[in-house]
Amino acid sequence: VDEQFKSTNMEGLWAIGDGSVGAHGCGCAAVGGIVVGDSMNKDVSDAPEPDIDEDQVMRQKETALAPLSVSAGTEPIEVEVAARYICRRYVGMVKNEGRLREGQRRLGTLKREFIPQMAARDPHGLMRAVEARNIMDLTEVHIAACLERKETRGQYMRADYTEINPTRTNMSTYQWMENGEPRLEIREVPELKPEYAREGS
Questions:
Q1: Overall pTM surpassing 0.90 (yes/no)
Q2: Does the CA dihedral 20-127-61-177 come out positive or negative?
Q3: DSSP state of 153
Q4: Which end of the chain is more exposed for a tag (fewer CB within 10 A), N or C?
Q5: Stretch 67-76: mean pLDDT, rounded?
Q6: Is the confidence at residue 153, as pLDDT, over 60?
Q7: How far from 64 is each of 24, 68, 74, 78, 101, CA to CA, in Å?
Q8: Residue 188 above 70 pLDDT?
Q9: Are 57 and 122 in contact (CB under 8 A)?
Q10: Contact present, 74 and 117 (Cβ < 8 Å)
Q11: pLDDT of 23 strictly over 70
């Protein structure tokens, strides 16, 4: 993001929150909200009418409402807790190929067997189901990115790749889901504006 919290990769996207600029905490989230609230009005006012993919909207609606038709299924919180456990147990502070692959396998089983069984009785339950699905997607792309990054650098540690990989210097991993599958792209980190770059670094 830039100094207005606008994405440098996707037009029309802002990213705020406690980790949006690499500094964690409520202060960053609050400041981000104030800055975006003050600055995005002009961008939104000048934006053209969106080109809406009605088929995509219907698919997302069907997915979001599916738990209402499950009468005796799994509570979304159980799926969420299981996904969080997989991430904590198999993708922890020090990573290695074997644990990452096992986490990936277990997450695949959870996704295939329990996502279709999530049940909801009301809007609150639907919200929890959407959140559980999102957490599973995030876990899936996170594991895929960790498997691809074969190095140890800073707070990122691989027991099976203990050295810095020089080809990853000034590179960043961009992750997203596309048609239900994780996608990764390694790109160079955008250069800092001269006024923010420290001389000699």
A1: no
A2: positive
A3: B
A4: C
A5: 93
A6: yes
A7: 30, 9, 15, 17, 29
A8: yes
A9: no
A10: yes
A11: no
Instruction: Give me the chain's average pLDDT, please.
Output: 89
As a dihedral over the C-alpha atoms of residue 201, residue 152, residue 80, residue 21, rounded to 10 degrees, the angle is 0
User: Could you tell me if 150 and 162 are in contact, meaning their C-beta atoms sit under 8 angstroms apart?
Assistant: no
Q: Which residue has the tokens 């005796």?
A: 72
Which residue in the block uniquely carries the two structure tokens 């994405």?
Answer: 7
Is residue 86 a contact partner of residue 99, using CB atoms and an 8 Å limit? no
Q: Looking at the chain, how many residues does it have?
A: 201
Q: How far is CA 135 from the centre of its chain?
A: 8
d(CA 40, CA 43): 5
* 146 neighbors 95 (Cβ within 8 angstroms): yes
Give the residue-averaged pLDDT of 37-62: 87
Residue with tokens 């939104």, as numbered in its chain: 44
In sequence order, the 6+-apart residues with CB closer than 8 A to the CB of 111 are 136, 140
- The pair of three-digit structure tokens given for residue 193, joined into one six-digit string: 């504006």
